[in-house]
Automatic annotation (TrEMBL):
Single biological process term from Gene Ontology: protein targeting
GO molecular function: protein transmembrane transporter activity
One Pfam family it belongs to: SecE
Sorted UniProt keywords: Cell membrane, Membrane, Protein transport, Translocation, Transmembrane, Transmembrane helix, Transport
UniProt-listed InterPro entries: SecE_bac, SecE_sf, Translocase_SecE/Sec61-g
The protein's name: Protein translocase subunit SecE
Protein localization: Cell membrane; Membrane
Topology with respect to the bilayer: Single-pass membrane protein
Major location (coarse): membrane
Length: 76
């Protein structure tokens, strides 16, 4: 076992050991991941973009409607 001369050195070694352990665990975890196929990624990306466009259209419609109502009732 390595003897530490002062507290600062002990903290540095502990930090390095924790960092190395984190990297080892991360590598092990990534080896267990089931990655999606290109087809699944394309399908999901298309779905997200379509959902964003639909939500944008709905918000724009409400915005335009409210602007017209304010112009009719307030600005007259």
């Amino acid at each position: 076992m390595v003897k530490q001369r002062n507290k600062g050195e002990k903290v540095r070694i502990n930090f390095i050991n924790k960092a190395i352990n984190f990297l080892k665990e991360s590598k092990a975890e990534l080896s267990r991941v089931v990655w999606p196929s290109k087809k699944e990624v394309f399908r999901d990306t298309t779905l997200v973009i379509a959902s964003i466009l639909i939500a944008t259209a709905i918000v724009a419609a409400f915005d335009i409607t409210l602007i017209k109502l304010v112009q009719i009732f307030v600005i007259k």
